[in-house]
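Protein in question passed on here:
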Amino acid sequence: MILAGLIGALFLGPGALAQTSPDNLALKGYDPVAYFTEQRPMPGNAQYQHEWDGAIYRFASAKHLALFKGEPDRYLPQYNNWCAASVAKGVKVHGNPEWWLVVDGRLYLFGKPIGPGLMKTDAAMTMQADENFSKVSKLPAPPEPDYMRGAGKPK
């Protein structure tokens, strides 16, 4: 059994035996720069990662990593990765990197697929979220939904 695992690791590469992610992995491993350059979410690669403000960010390419290092604040999600619509309502909900929107050069994440559409139709949402963020950031973090722990894609 051990021999089979070692042989598999040789053929599949160094990450074959353990596919764990660090607890401080930002955006669940998605590349924050890709939302701006590719206009879509892209999984990052552990080969291109950078620690910023206590979190580990992964990137799809060396170019994306260099862009982030040059201007991290430009690419960071707003509200520390919390759902923008929820922050606007004064509550804390995990943002999902698959449900997102870039508005005025700022990346917003949402906890449900309806979030980006709500923000597009509610011009006051960002103002309300900006006002609420300092209060919401002090709230305890809710438990992560199953899909955020790698149990499958959101439904």
Summary: Helices lie at 2-12, 34-37, 62-70, 72-75, 84-89, 115-121, 125-136.
